[in-house]
Amino acid sequence: MEELMHKTVFYTVLFMVLLVKSVSSHEFVATITKINDGDTLTALVNNENTKIRLLDVDCYETKKNKHAKALQQYYGLPYDEMILKDKQSRKQLKNLLKDHRYIRIEWEERDSFGRILGKVYLDDIKSAGVIDINQYMLDQGGCNKYVPSSVLKKSKEKK
């Protein structure tokens, strides 16, 4: 019980420090509400659920759509394998964040779907350090560096 109280106090203080320390409106602390997939999560921002997309990270798709088809061709993966990789990357992100409520986000823009595109950080009390979630997912989560649609399209045309 005492350990839980210490963690609660720590995260409350951390949240307040980061909130005050924010140097611009493009850096903030948010409360995680959902892990959508390996490169997208939902967080409470200004009392609204907002989708956050990991900048420069692209995990595989769960549904057949144009992007999924382009990724299949670009990486040469069967659809079933792509779905499995997406489930694995989502699980990896869930495991990383399972004991945490808050994330810190640095962002510059929103994408065409209205999602915030940003670098996401976890200030981890257990390791007493900062985890760059974007880099973590590239290294551990089975995700790839983001490839622009124009490159995927050119790749498709060459095949």
Q: Gap between N and C termini, in Å?
A: 60 Å
Low-confidence stretches: 19-24
Fraction in beta strands: 25-35%
Order of strands across the biggest sheet? 1-2-3-6-5
What is the gyration radius calculated from CA atoms? 17 Å
Number of domains: 1
CATH-defined architecture: Beta Barrel
The quaternary state of the protein chains shown equals: single chain
SSE string, helix = H, strand = E?
Answer: HEEEEHHEEEHEH
User: The CATH topology is what?
Assistant: OB fold (Dihydrolipoamide Acetyltransferase, E2P)
Bin the helical content. 40-55%
Largest sheet: 5 strands, mixed, barrel
Q: Figure out the total of helices.
A: 5
Number of strands: 8
Notes on the protein architecture:
The chain is globular, with a radius of gyration of 17 Å. The longest helix has 20 residues, at 2-21. The chain has 159 residues and is α+β, with helices and mostly antiparallel strands. It has helices at 2-21, 66-75, 79-97, 133-140, 149-158; strands at 27-37, 40-45, 48-54, 57-58, 102-110, 116-124, 129-132, 144-145. Residues 19-24 have low confidence and may be disordered. Strand 1 (27-37) and strand 2 (40-45) form a beta hairpin. The strands form two sheets. A five-stranded mixed β-barrel has the order 1-2-3-6-5. The N and C termini lie far apart (60 Å). The protein has one domain (2-158): OB fold (Dihydrolipoamide Acetyltransferase, E2P), CATH 2.40.50.
